[in-house]
Amino acid sequence: MATKKLSANGLLGIMVAVFITAYFVPFDSISVSRAIQEAFLMLSDYARQHVLLCLVPAMFIAGAITVFLNQQAVIRYLGPDAPKAVAYSVASISGAILAVCSCTVLPIFKGIYKKGAGLGPAVSFLYSGPAINILAIVLSYKIFGWKIGIARMIGAVVFAVIIGMVMEAIFKKEDEERVADARMFKYDGDDEGLGLRKMIIYMASMIGILVFVNWANSRGGSVIWDSIYRYKYWITGAFGLVLLYSLVKWFTKDEILNWGRETRDFSLQIMPYLFFGVLVAGFFLGRPGHDALIPTSWVASLVGGNSILSNFGAAISGAFMYFATLTEVPIVQSLIGAGMGKGPALALLLAGPSLSLPSMLVINGELGIKKTSVYVLLVVVLSTFAGWIFGMIA
Predict the structure, then answer these.
(1) Where are the alpha helices (DSSP H) in 47-118?
(2) CB-based contact 119:368 (threshold 8 Å)
């Protein structure tokens, strides 16, 4: 009965929200019409550029982590009682290797967190994946100068550790309770199922597909990087053959079906939040280079100079905007041309790639409003003060 009552109340709430929207929103306004168009154009861009090549591989990796990865191994290296140096090194390096956007990292974060990783290392991974992108840092160095390039690299690495450790300290008790049942089983150094060597090959093949199929062109920023870009589909195909071989040789039909079910479940839990978040972000902020309800000129006017307020404006704007991998560089470049200061530029580069409105919705669904709010607050505050300090000494 309680479930039916909750469902009825939820349905009533949706009906009231739709009524209020239909009654009060001036849909005949040019700015509102443009914002609605931008919302769906952004969703279209997101579906075409990120779902098939980014999110789908990430969902399969998350499903594989849940089904096949040894839980005690995860707890041993990433759990609440794991050595801090080991846990945070593994989390930050693993995230940096993927070099994905704030939405693509979410399924994998959810997978390792569900498998028993401590909150701190899991959040460190969550931040580092989008923030510590080697090519983005190289492009920042080339376009904005060595000072911003180095500051972004150091800031992203340090923030990944600090944010994770603060989250772990604040929520230590409830995080230990979360994995209490799993810690009752002693890790004996052996891996179940596939074995360590096969598991590494299997997981590496999927990570290789995710990384190389999304390899971006540096447009002259790196000869080696661009050489890989020219052959990225051949490299992706080679990883695909390794994955196919591992599936045929090492897995039963039931195991593959179980993997598929977990992947499906991740998709159902995450995709609705992402699509809704992209629509809302597009409605208010629009696509890069296109105005929606909030004009780009307003954002630019908030981030001039190097005051605490301008750095906070840059950090909070970046936190709610959606940046695909590498797109933060040309966006910041255009904002600098419109008068953005160096400090706010760094603040946006540190906050923007790691957060977005869609990712906040998914993180809230997994961690709850309290942990999500603390995470967002840490990213915004640290980015604000890093930008402010950098602006004074740059």
Answers:
(1) 56-68, 71-78, 84-98, 105-114
(2) no
CA-based angle 91:344:286, to the nearest 5? 85
For the stretch 294-317, pLDDT in tens is 777 777 778 878 889 999 999 998
- Residue 240's pLDDT band, with cuts at 50, 70 and 90, is very high
**Full-model pTM:** 0.74
The amino acid at 324 = A
CA 139 – CA 330 distance, rounded (Å):
10
Query: Which residue is it, tokens 């051949």?
Result: 234
- What are the pLDDT digits (tens) for 166-223? 999 999 888 877 766 554 444 444 444 567 778 888 888 998 888 888 887 766 666 7
Domains of the chain, residue spans: 42-393
User: Residue 387 corresponds to which tokens in the numbers above?
Assistant: 């930008």
Tell me how crowded residue 195 is: count the other CB atoms within 10 A of its CB. 12
User: What is the token pair recorded at 99?
Assistant: 């070099």
* Residue 274 in tokens: 């992402």
Confirm if 359 and 276 have CB atoms less than 8 A apart.
no
Distance (Å, rounded) from C-alpha 20 to C-alpha 199? Answer: 52
Whether the CB-CB separation of 146 and 138 falls below 8 Å is answered with no
